[in-house]
Amino acid sequence: MSESSIFEKVLFVGMDYKIPKGGIASVLNTYSIFIHPFKFVRTAASELNNVQNVWYAVSGYLLLIWKLFTDRKIEIVHIHSASGTSLWRKTCAIKIAKMMGKKVVKTYVTEVDLKNSDSQILKKVDVIFSKSR
């Protein structure tokens, strides 16, 4: 199996990375340069207000469902977020992926206290990458 075909199985979920502002967007931008194909669903953008971000989240979740139904190669959903409200926005993506039988990889770009985070959400995640306390 070639290296590029491995990424046929991965769908990345996170904030808009095309004009990176912040850690998550910078990481996703780097991934997009080196990972091919880079399958991605945007659920937020840094330049938007809260109402616009709700719209992006809802439309992103609908696109996530569509991609998981139509692209049968996807086996892993790799979700990028910070802690706090970013985690809550990604809760829907975690639940959607698990309901559709996908493995979930969760990456935090901030330090997270995994022992005190919402354990119900994290129990659904297969792999977590974080700077933990």
Describe the 3D structure:
This protein has 133 residues and is α/β, with parallel strands linked by helices. The protein is 42% helix and 26% strand. It contains 5 helices and 5 strands. It has helices at 3-6, 23-34, 50-70, 85-99, 119-122; strands spanning 10-15, 39-44, 76-81, 103-112, 127-132. A 5-stranded parallel sheet has the order 2-1-3-4-5, with helices on both faces. β1, α2 (23-34) and β2 form a beta-alpha-beta unit. The longest helix is centred in the middle third of the chain and has 21 residues, at 50-70. It starts with a helix and ends with a strand. The mean pLDDT is 80.
Write a brief caption for the model.
With 133 residues, the protein is α/β, with parallel strands linked by helices. The protein contains five helices and five strands. Strand 1 (10-15), helix 2 and strand 2 (39-44) form a beta-alpha-beta unit.
List the helices and strands and how they pair.
Elements: H1 3-6, E1 10-15, H2 23-34, E2 39-44, H3 50-70, E3 76-81, H4 85-99, E4 103-112, H5 119-122, E5 127-132
Parallel strand pairs: 1-2, 1-3, 3-4, 4-5
Helix pairs in contact: 3-4
